[in-house]
Amino acid sequence: MSTPSPLTPRPPFLQPLMLDGESLRIESQWLGEAQEARQPLLVFLHEGLGSLSQWRDFPARLCEALQLPGLVFSRPGYGHSTPRTAPWPPDYLQRQARGLLPACFEALGLADRPLLLFGHSDGASLALLYAAHAAQQVRGVVAMAPHLFVEPMTLLGLHAAKTAYEQGDSLRKALARHHADTDSAFYGWNDAWLRPGFEDWNIEAELQGRLQCPVLAVQGVHDEYGSLRQIEAIAELHADTRLLALPDCGHSPHKDQPERLIAHMQDWLASLA
After folding, report:
1. How far is CA 195 from CA 90, 91, 98, 167, in A?
2. Mean pLDDT of 177-186
3. How do the domains of the chain map onto residue ranges?
4. Topology annotation, domain 13-272
């Protein structure tokens, strides 16, 4: 039998997981022969309203371009993974970096596997936190539209999203195509960020001096949820950072400019090799 190429998506499956005494199911999908340990595994960490299916074909396209196997999954509260009732704790991303991701990787047989992390928005913050937590495992991070701290424009976007979700039906219907429980996905994320006191949330101190891998920090110049200060802050606290500011691009470069993003990532990885 021929070996599938890294781009070949396997059928999604529900991975059982025990975390803090709770039984969870994690919607997961391999791209290619992901268990083959000769290469780093490219792991995709979705945004605050994202899921496995919301990446669409981008993970397969990126894995094909890089000739790397991949893993895509929905965190609890999203997609077809176990729902999570709001409110989520204000440090939910830090908790996921310290608890959820290690448990997921252990359950999937990846505890000792070298990883490349590709994170978007919430997922980019999570990728940076996990890289700081598991420096020996992570070989590189692509942090796309990350949040290191809360900006006024971020809160404005969150308020606008809440209005759209509660007073219209287009956002709710759009989320229903990707999440079994839309309230779990929306309110877990939205309520956490809009809770009084969250405006002081900041992960810079948790990253300072703890990141050891190369970082490609990507931001759309017209990102409606964060300014270029987010990626500039990564470069200020970690010298091995390449900044990529994409003009005419919003919060989702992998949707707005996928070809340019893939080309830049190819060049970045080639420079590391």
Report:
1. 8, 12, 22, 20
2. 96
3. 13-272
4. Rossmann fold (3.40.50)
